[in-house]
Amino acid sequence: MDFEQTARTYHKSRMNCAASVYKTFEGVNRAHTEPPRPRGEGGKCGAVLAAEKVLREMGYTDTESFDRDFLALYGSLYCADLRGRLSGRCNDFVGTAASLVEKRLEDPQA
After folding, report:
1. Mutual angle of helices 90-106 and 46-57, in 10-degree steps
2. What is the pLDDT of residue 110?
3. Range of the domain at 43
4. Angle CA(68)–CA(46)–CA(48) in degrees, nearest 5?
5. DSSP H stretches of helix in the chain
6. How many angstroms separate the CA atoms of 93 and 86, rounded?
7. Total structural domains within the chain
8. pTM score > 0.85 for this model?
9. Angle separating helix axes 17-24 and 3-12, nearest 10 degrees
């Protein structure tokens, strides 16, 4: 399954960023509950929040490495920063978040 493309497709269908990433993993995430609210934790990007939640629910305890990888690519984890500096790229954030989750699911040491 191409998790990145699936997340991008959900987002293009007008699903919000957090729901797009979270729904992408509903078939592999047995603890699947509700997606987080975008900007629900101090303004953090919804795609980031959803990716962190998926990882935690699937037993991956090191969400900080996810954050570091996302931060290295985009310079921030916060919606206002991302949308302010990189306007119009929310679909990229969604796709990247899904891709980074997939990488960790394939190789938990990543």
Report:
1. 20
2. 67
3. 3-106
4. 20
5. 3-12, 17-24, 46-57, 63-74, 79-85, 90-106
6. 10
7. 1
8. yes
9. 140
C-alpha span between 89 and 75 (Å, rounded): 13
What is the DSSP-derived secondary structure letter of residue 41? T
CA–CA separation, 19 vs 38, rounded Å?
A: 8
Tokens representing 97 are: 């978040």
Q: How many CA atoms within 13 Å lie on the side-chain side of 71?
A: 10
pLDDT digit string, tens, across residues 8-27 = 999 999 999 999 999 999 98
pLDDT at 99 over 70: yes
d(CA 85, CA 83): 6
pLDDT higher than 80, residue 103:
yes
Alpha carbon distances (Å) from 66 to 40, 70, 81: 18, 6, 18
Q: What angle do CA 91, 87, 15 make, to 5 degrees?
A: 30
Q: Measured between alpha carbons, how far is 90 from 80 in angstroms, rounded to an integer?
A: 11
